[in-house]
Design goal:
Number of helices: 16
Number of strands: 18
Strand content: 15-25%
CATH superfamily of the largest domain: PAS domain
Radius of gyration: 65 Å
CATH class of the largest domain: Alpha Beta
């Protein structure tokens, strides 16, 4: 008992959640499917919108930070240029370095070299007396300011910072006296620049580059330092909309506005690029130097994808809650229908007499009232049917007794028909033989009295007649047992009988039958065959004919015709023949199969025997099948 409970519980649970067996389960599954569909559709749409918004915000923030970084870097460079211009031309290079260090202690001065490239003063980063003539910071800064890395081993802070600045020192006449270099250290940067360094740099996703007018990377990671920027714009990249454009330096680009975009790198990566121009003097003239921020595409979409996933989960949870509430509501709404179903099932099991009709005017109450009325009507009709059934049983009993009586009469009629048939067969066989033997006996008596010498020949003739009568009797008995027409068809059976008739009598004759008539082979065909044999025997014994023609054909699709014509002596059909039952038997057999018999004859004009029978086309079965 206890082992069967879990299985029965699981079976009941499976039936309750099967929509093919429970309308409530179907409604619940429908609500769940709709909730899931709406949840996934809403999450897909809202996630896509949110993802796009987050990406645009990220791009916009990166552009603003790039612009802020370019502005701050330009301000730092401009400040150092102003300080160098104040000190240049009024004092020696060594005193100028000391003056700048003392007057601007927060500017991170590094070293100063004379016009020949010899380091004459510094903070120790470059040794005094060292020759920097071949260094890029010196050779390229003799004519104009230069940004880059003066000493790559100067410290980790400089390596990850915004590089160094080298500026030419000129006198009042415009002659270059030397070059002074300074660190672009972090302590001068604005609050936004420090926030950018703290939020972007440590995780290694966003990288800050400084590019010269020829697009060479002068400040940046070691993998890109002192190399030309070779990023390629992606034509089929996701569109970046609503991003504020940045004015690009005229020397770097032909266009005056630079819009952030995705570019592919030779290493195979894809980055988002944002650039801002640098201004190296107070007049605001563009110098061709640019600040560039790059961020991997995966990092750009990371937050957007996370938000899309979050929206998906929220939508799924909301969909689940909606499905649960909908399932509970569907179950509550179908409670009345469930009661009606259980009530109808109880009526079907004869546990209660009438369907319980719930109160109210909704569809369930109306359906229950209709079912109750139908049930009452059915019960009334059932009572009437029981009464009618009893009456029918009584009438069936009466009809059964009547049928039994008719069956007895039918059996008696069958016996009578069989007796008539046997009588006809005896007439056709034994009667003829006996008549022949009687004639021989009479002849023998006459010969015994008048010509005893010819008695032996007549005795032999009498013996032959007796043998022939015996053979005919055996043949008749065999034909009673063997239904040749049923097995071969009416046409082949008559053809064989006619062939034996011609061989036996030596007469000339002709037989013809079309295919449709020859295929006829039910019990009526057997009677037609017996009538044909009787007609041929009458011709053989009485007609004294020399030619016989037998024709079997279909007059139309529903009538079969059998004609037997001889050229014998004929007879008068109006004169009765007492003691002869051949014609009587033929008419009886015609009436038995509901056929039309016509006999035309006159003395010395031959005889025509014609039978017409109405048949159904489906009874003309194939002759080949009958033969086989």
């Amino acid at each position: 008992m206890t082992s069967g409970r879990p299985s029965s519980f699981l079976a009941a649970m499976a039936q309750n959640i099967d929509p093919r067996r429970s309308l409530v389960a179907g409604l619940i599954w429908l609500v769940v499917a709709l909730a899931a569909s709406f949840a996934f559709a809403a999450s897909w749409w809202a996630g896509g919108v949110a993802r796009e918004i987050v990406v645009q915000q990220h791009v916009r923030r990166l552009v603003l930070e790039t612009d802020q970084l370019g502005s701050d870097l330009s301000q730092a460079v401009t400040t150092r240029l102003a300080a160098v211009r104040v000190a240049s031309g009024s004092m020696p290079l060594e005193r100028a370095f000391d003056y700048l260090t003392m007057a601007y202690p927060d500017q991170g001065w590094m070293a100063v070299a004379d016009a020949a490239g010899t380091v004459v003063a510094g903070d120790g980063s470059l040794p005094v007396g060292a020759n920097a003539a071949v260094m890029p910071w010196f050779s390229q800064a003799l004519e104009e300011p230069w940004l880059g890395i003066v000493q790559e081993t100067a410290g980790s802070e400089q390596a990850r910072g915004l590089g160094d600045l080298s500026v030419p020192i000129k006198d009042a006449a415009g002659r270059t006296l030397g070059v002074i270099a300074a660190h672009l250290t972090w302590h001068w940067a604005s609050r936004d620049l420090r926030r950018l360094s703290a939020s972007l740099e440590p995780r290694g996703s966003t990288q800050i580059l400084v590019l010269d007018p020829k697009q060479w990377v002068r400040v940046g990671p070691a993998a890109l330092l002192n190399r030309r920027w070779n990023g390629t714009p992606i034509e089929n990249a996701p569109p970046i909309e609503d991003a504020p454009p940045i004015e690009a330096p005229a020397i770097a680009r032909d266009d005056s506005v630079f819009t952030p975009r995705f570019e592919s790198l030779p290493s195979g990566g894809t980055v988002l690029v944002a650039r801002a121009p640098m201004r190296l003097d107070r007049e605001g003239a563009a110098s061709g130097w640019t600040v560039q921020l790059i961020e991997p595409k995966e990092q750009v979409y990371q937050r957007a994808n996370a938000l899309a996933v979050r929206i998906l989960w929220i939508s799924v949870c909301l969909g689940a809650v909606t499905a649960l509430i909908g399932a509970m509501g569907a179950r509550h709404l179908t409670t009345r229908l469930g009661r009606l179903t259980r009530s109808a099932a109880a009526v079907g099991r004869n546990e209660i007499a009438r369907i319980e009709v719930p109160s109210g005017r909704d569809e369930v109450a109306q359906l229950a009232a209709v079912l109750a009325k139908v049930l009452d009507d059915l019960r009334q009709e059932r009572s009437e049917l029981l009464t009618l059934s009893s009456e029918l049983e009584r009438r069936v009993a009466l009809r059964t007794r009547e049928v039994q009586r008719l069956a007895e009469e039918s059996r008696y009629a069958a016996i009578v028909r069989e007796r008539l048939k046997i009588a006809r067969d005896l007439h056709d066989t034994l009667a003829h033989s006996m008549m022949a033997m009687l004639s021989e006996v009479r002849l023998l008596r006459k010969l015994l009295m008048r010509d005893p010498e010819s008695l032996a020949d007549e005795l032999a003739r009498a013996e032959q007649v007796a043998h022939e009568g015996l053979n005919e009797a055996r043949t008749a008995i065999a034909q009673m047992r063997f239904h040749a027409v049923r097995d071969t068809g009416l046409g082949p059976a008559i053809a064989k009988a006619f062939g034996r008739f011609i061989d036996r009598t030596g007469l000339t004759g002709e037989f013809s039958a079309d295919d449709a008539a020859a295929r006829f082979g039910d019990e009526r065909a057997e009677t037609l065959f017996r009538m044909t044999e009787e007609a041929l025997r009458n011709i053989e014994r009485h007609a004294m004919a020399s030619r016989v023609v037998v024709a079997l054909s279909m007059v139309n699709e529903t009538h079969l015709s059998l004609r037997i014509v001889d050229d014998g002596i004929g007879f008068d059909t109006r004169v009765p023949s007492p003691g002869h039952y051949g014609l009587v038997g033929l008419r009886e057999q015609a009436q038995l199969i509901d056929a039309k018999l016509q006999i035309d004859s006159a003395p010395n004009r031959g005889t025509t025997f014609a039978v017409t029978l109405r048949i159904e086309p489906e009874l003309l079965w194939p002759l080949d099948a009958a033969v086989h």
